[in-house]
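As a warm-up, study this chain.
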Amino acid sequence: MRKFLLFCVTSFWITTNIFSQNDILNTEAKPALPSKIKTIYLVQHTHTDIGYTKPQTEILAEHIRYIDYAVEYCELTDNYPDDAKFRWTCEAAWPVMEYLQTRPKEQVDKFLKYVKEGRIEVTGMFFNMSEMADENSLRTFLEPILEFKKRGIPVTTAMQNDVNGIAWCLADYMPDLGIKYFTMGENGDRALIPFDRPTVYKWESPSGKQVYSYRADHYHTGNFWGIHNVNADSIAPAIFSYLNDLENKGYPFDAISVQYSGYHTDNSPPSMHECDLIRDWNDKHETPKLRSATIHEFMDYITGKYADQLPVYRVAYPDWWTDGFGSAARETAAARKTQSDMTTIQGLLSMAVLKDKIIPQQVPDKIRNIHENLLFYDEHTYGSAESISNPTGENSEIQWAEKSSYVWDALKNTQLMYETSIGLLQPDLLRGEYPTVTFFNTLNWMRSGVIELYIDHEIIPRNRLFKIVDQTGRELLTQPLRSRNEGTYYAVYAENIPPMGYKTYRIITGKDDRPELPPTSIDNNILENDYFKLVFDSRTGSIKSLFDKKLQLEIVDMKSPWQLGAFVYETLGNREQMSKYTLTDYNRTGLTDVHINAGINGSIYQSVMIEGKSGCCDEKSAVKIEIRLFHQEKRIELVYDVKKLPITDPDGIYVAFPFKLDNAKLYFDVQGGVVSAGENQLEGTASDWNTVQNFVAARNNKAQFVVGSNLSPLFQLGGIRTGLYQRKKTYDLPHVYSWVTNNYWTTNFRASQEGELKWSYYLTSDSDTSNTFATRFGWDSRIPIYARVMPKGKANDRPASYSSFHFGKENLLMTSATPSIDNGYILINVRELDGKSTLLQIFDSSGQQLEFSIVNALEEPLQKGLKETNFIPLENKFIKLKL
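Now compare it with the structure written out below.
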């Protein structure tokens, strides 16, 4: 993200929460306080930016080569004093994994020798990660640890640098993998940083699993001193100024860990010159001593001496920098779709395993490759240093082409994986004289819902009447959506699809043509059904009233400056203001020249079509919004279609959901749990915007309103909050804004995006105020029910309905199911949602209780031979089972 480069000519606003870079480099002596700090652990690493300084393809190779340098420098300093010997921390696991697989045995043996001696440390995170990935991909994120363990490489520390947030589920996963420590060398550019000084604390998962965590200073702090200039005398003022500042801020320990790179640049090669500086310093200074160290040494010392004094924080760690993903809304949407599809696909493969199908040998590698591509897209380095200052320059163009290629490759291979998974299950599906459609549900509860289904005209001729019926003759509701020459897309309301199972229906084609659907009745700009009454504003093209008939509640705050569904276009006077932690120079406009038209009224939903003009589009194009009100379920969808101009001046798009609910709090789900905005999140973490997995909920003790988007992950909670930068988030009203696009960064992220963008939202309300209700609505909406249409075929006696297994506990969520590394087994990840102690028992379709094991994220056993296990409140467990 925002980097520190010697050659960079762009002016940055550089901060840490201790002092600025200018403070560090200021050589004017300050009044010294007696320092209790006796040892400075100097940790050399290279900050792994996959891109930014040079194209990704060059950078990846360099990081593998740097490990060779580190091994050589260890050899060259074998005879140095112990404190001055070269030591190296491998910041990211990915280059180490590649190194072990590609280097000759004699070189790998040298590397392993220095790992064993404690001169080289291997850490546990794939690379520096944004908060965009889902829980399913984050298992792949940790997989290198398994290879390291096979090689006898200890992994006790996870290291994140530059980024200022992290997925909360990692606090759950890491302790069971043997990772004791987690360190964050944060960058304060356009972000606040927790705590006012470096802090060691106990970070807890939602259920209370614990890792010792260190919020370090910036990962280049040693370079700010000038440590790479190799002169002990010249850095003395900066070091003593640093220690003096720590004393003033009440830093409590007698040691500190400071990170640096061999040279003052990201993707820096190692350097052994600092070893000479450390040796010279220690010859001249009695205290503090400098020690060339690996990252865990400081943590060992602090936890060994001060463990009982460390504060405990059971909080999420939301990331400030995910706002940049809004600069590529199309690619971010593709990543989100691929994540959801992979949850379904791996569930389908798990069904096949439980049916004793032989999974093709290449499938595990294909799954891993897809998730790795998602991780390469979701990791923190997006593009080049000059992406804004020179957006059409060669480096900017090449780096974006390489970055975006990861997500498109993942999307392509994911769609092919559907064919692999369904190909395994097809022989078990009911066939006969009629074509069939089978609906597959890979979540752990019985599901009903609308899916979009494509059917060839060979099976159902264009515009022909047809029925989709089950074995009893019960007919599913269908509604045509759009056609192409070879087939038609339909909305189908699939009912009661078994958990981790499927249900097959017959397609019976009639002889008559289907009638045209009638238009929706919107007299006086009102649309209603048994659940809701919507009133549209013909001036703004948004919903000025949404009344819940069951709850007898108005959902829209009519005093809000923006009504529900409002399309808000924002332009900034300058983008540099965000780097100064403010936003005052901006302009926000809604739609103009609005037209509200009736849509169609089918058996599944009725719709209203809205069009209006916006400054983000050319004069010939309109912003198109379709509002869908469903008949069978309490659900509203809002679908947006925008043809955006390629604007490089800073601009952004919001969509408004100004909820009205007395004394309501706002909640959103992240990887591993649910966050109450501003409460169970670490103070100083992202408070202007948040990365949402599946839902945002406005909730009091009587009702909750739930909204989410399958493609657009950024939301602002409490209003449009861009530029507020609150350390402790507060808000007065439960107003929610989706932040669809922006190009507000001054580096790294894209300068513009153009062309047609489509995204949508799902919305409901209920008197059930539990996490379980909001979670199930969000997951039902985002994780697809997959459908497979088959032509008529040879009749068989296969069952029309199948369920692999079920829990029978509503507050237990299975976040993923995937084939195990052991044949015949699957691995599922289960999380408790509502803070209730809950007994888990797993039953097959006949009601037989299944035996299972508790394992960690890499399938290493923790408990074997269980028939039941108790989940403490909000606990997460990995479970391995077979039928």
